Amino acid sequence: MKKARLVLEDGTEFFGESFGAPHSTSGEVVFNTAVSGYCETLTDPSCVGQILAMTWPIFGAYGVPPLTEEAGMRRFFESNRIWPRGLVVTEYSPQYSHWNAVRSLGDWLREEDVPAITGIDTRALAKKIRDQGTMLGKIVIEDEKIEDFSDPIKSNLTAEVSCREIIEYVPETGRSDANPTIVLLDCGTKNSTIRALLDRGANVVRVPWDYDFADMPYDGLLISDGPGDPHFAEETVVNIKKAFEIGKPIFGIGMGHLLLGRAAGAEAFRLRFGHHGHNQPVVQSNTDRAFVTSQHHTFALDPLRLSTGWEEWFVNLNDGSCEGIRHKHAPFFGVQFSPNLSEGSKNAENFYETFFSKLK
Fold first, then answer.
1. Euclidean distance between CA atoms 223 and 95, whole angstroms
2. How confident is the model over 240-264, as pLDDT tens digits?
3. Is residue 65 within 8 Å of residue 102, measured between CB atoms?
């Protein structure tokens, strides 16, 4: 393995060895506290443009599963490619053991041309980011020259990860007029979200992030999770406001929650270092009902600017930020966390039932 460095924008350097694609890269350095699920995390579109630093000490021990497809999606992944620009781990295990593994993590990263570095004290790195806020960085392989730090948040990441055309999915039982039709507004959707809709018997129509779906026949609108700054998706906000007038049930997840909130009058702001991992505690406002949730986002809503008729629904117990909003009378609601992330917590999966219960 070649020598490699992780260089932060303040000049701090961490030294290690390369085990992925043998070239340098730069992006936003984000720490993730997940213990496992690296295959799903790496294929999560919400990670686009990031250099992902995993705080759990060892990664790679269970390898990577096959690229099997099911219902038009890769069965064991959240999308059809790796999205982060780089991966940082404390210890990489090239030896893997799992009944479903067909290749090592390092081999997969090289196949997808994604650099990676091992030998870094990722917990020290996480503490630095936690104390100083989000930082840009670059993985430098040996003496390769890479001058600039790239800030992905300055571009429209929603457009980068969204589908380019309409895609339809049907449940295993087949298409039926008796099934509800869900428009999935793709802001960077995960396969697990599509599966959650199909498992509940819905016909799913996946449309691009800026698609005007107002004239489409549908029973409910789901605005998906996704990466980046919600202020780039003005077209989506305009279309969500049209959906308010239509009055069909609306469920926003992650980025979808942020865009729903912007359509409802609130503004979004950038968190100090975001929420990344499977252990974010949230509580329902004015209750003792709490959930441990999976999250991967950098922005949050200011609920004080919500229009009349809207209210804050959930709050993060770590930093007090808004984790959910809902309309007091109309069937519109959103949550910042992922209800059923395939590799994370599923104790909030009942929000899909809440959404389906409002469909007519």
1. 40
2. 999 999 999 999 999 999 999 999 9
3. yes
For residue 320 the two structure tokens come to: 């007090």
Contact 64, 100 (CB under 8 A): no
pLDDT tens for each residue of 336-360: 999 876 555 556 788 999 999 999 7
Checking if the pLDDT of 220 tops 60, the result is: yes
Q: Is the model's pLDDT at 221 over the cut of 80?
A: yes
User: Are 172 and 192 contacting, i.e. CB atoms less than 8 angstroms apart?
Assistant: no
Residue-wise pLDDT for 277-336, tens only, equals 888 999 999 999 999 998 999 999 999 999 999 999 999 999 999 999 999 999 999 999
C-alpha span between 127 and 132 (Å, rounded): 8
